[in-house]
């Protein structure tokens, strides 16, 4: 016997969010962060460095090198995407902007796949609200749209999504492929072509982006869900089960053929996780989706443990569980947790039909205070940077970012003012009436997250570029090297440092060796003095120690060969 659903929803509660408003929110979230900024330390600039090397033909496509080092992740698909974008871009488009276009498209795919995946899950028989004796309950299509709107709002509201989803790294490729696989399994009972394409692209993309184990686990779990939870009255389990099994097997074989399988479990004794740090990450990264997801697990618990499996609950629960398990056992933890955000947002959406009015009001007030205070702080610090008043915030900026010169952009100011006005209008709309739609509790969290991201990427962008990029440090190195340094040897540079020197400084780098004849050498301070087998230190005269202004532990040493021409 099927347990009764906890969702009691009237037709008036499933009015869809206006499409223009949802589209505007997505644009405001996607575009900032991809436009107008430098590559940031360290995964962002490292990935961009490999893409640039591939596009310029400086390294083989099958085994790219940057500063003589291979990539940290085995999957090459993200680097190929960026390199192809650089090669296909028109001459007037900068390389960093060309690289960001396909990755911006991947973020859009993630948002779309999440919305459509939740829409089809909400069409499942077990997800439907209680039928009223005299009618008036929400009809299935409108109910599904309202739940999908709530899921998309919950995803945008997640605090951990903003930065990582705007980097040109393998983790954004993995995120979009995970969302595609999630959509494929959710839509299988209702569609054929789109889920089939998403299934292949999702599993193969995850594998080629360096996550074959994750692809295999999600594929096996999805196959089990297809068997156990039909999802609709029309039983199509057998062909879809065979399809998922075949694609999962092919993806595993491709990973084996390309030697992509790696043991990445973090040991408990050495290099293991710090549990307090993990707890803090779990607390803020998925906020506010995870509290609502836990509420869903509680209110829908009878459906979760019932003998009749319900795909709308078990599918996002499995994807979330795999992501959390990877977060606890692998590094980097935040990148692993990122992949579970679409599923976590889906679970959060199914909490909306069961929330009490008092809980919704608590969410609204907390969100209003948090994001309003955050936005006010961003504005006050920006005014202090521009005018010197208030004096204390200006002094704090000068202390934390020594040497930073504030910049004024009229366009950035206009965009920030428009975003702030939009937030005020949204708060007024939410507070002016008793809004009925079930997605109303997530409007302010999503709008506040978008507001904060827009303000950071407009008012604070020069400061963030100064603090988070290698640009200031590389320019200081260039000043020492002069306009025509020729080739430059390197010792102990990380992938990110090598990429920054090549991109910002347009330098020709060579790994140090006793037979090299470059006049200049740049070394990381932690790697000097170097091994005598690599560098004869007596041949080099130190000219400068170049710090990164916002990091006391990051210094580059610049040497000139003894006896070289001035």
Would you write up a description of this structure?
With 566 residues, the protein is of the alpha/beta class. The protein has 23 helices and 5 strands. The chain has helices spanning 19-30, 43-55, 77-88, 95-122, 140-157, 161-164, 170-187, 193-208, 212-228, 237-257, 275-285, 289-299, 301-304, 311-329, 333-338, 341-349, 357-387, 391-400, 410-432, 443-458, 461-468, 471-481, 495-504, and strands at 487-491, 508-511, 520-524, 540-548, 551-561. Strands 2-1-3-5-4 form a 5-stranded mixed sheet, covered by helices on one side. The longest helix is centred in the middle third of the chain and has 31 residues, at 357-387. Residues 268-272 have low confidence and may be disordered.
Radius of gyration: 26 Å
What kind of sheet is the major sheet?
A: 5 strands, mixed
The number of helical runs is: 23
Order of helices and strands: HHHHHHHHHHHHHHHHHHHHHHEHEEEE
Structural class: alpha/beta
Spatial strand arrangement across the major sheet: 2-1-3-5-4
Amino- and carboxy-terminal Cα gap: 88 Å
Provide the residue-averaged pLDDT. Answer: 91
Query: What percentage of amino acids are in beta strands?
Result: 5-15%
Quick one: overall form? globular
Features:
566 residues; 58% helix; five-stranded mixed sheet; alpha/beta
Short description:
The protein is of the alpha/beta class and 566 residues long.
Per-chain topology:
Blueprint: H1 19-30, H2 43-55, H3 77-88, H4 95-122, H5 140-157, H6 161-164, H7 170-187, H8 193-208, H9 212-228, H10 237-257, H11 275-285, H12 289-299, H13 301-304, H14 311-329, H15 333-338, H16 341-349, H17 357-387, H18 391-400, H19 410-432, H20 443-458, H21 461-468, H22 471-481, E1 487-491, H23 495-504, E2 508-511, E3 520-524, E4 540-548, E5 551-561
Parallel strand pairs: 1-2, 1-3
Antiparallel strand pairs: 3-5, 4-5
Helix pairs in contact: 1-20, 2-3, 2-23, 3-4, 4-5, 4-7, 4-16, 5-16, 5-20, 7-8, 8-9, 8-10, 9-10, 9-14, 12-16, 14-16, 17-18, 17-20, 19-20
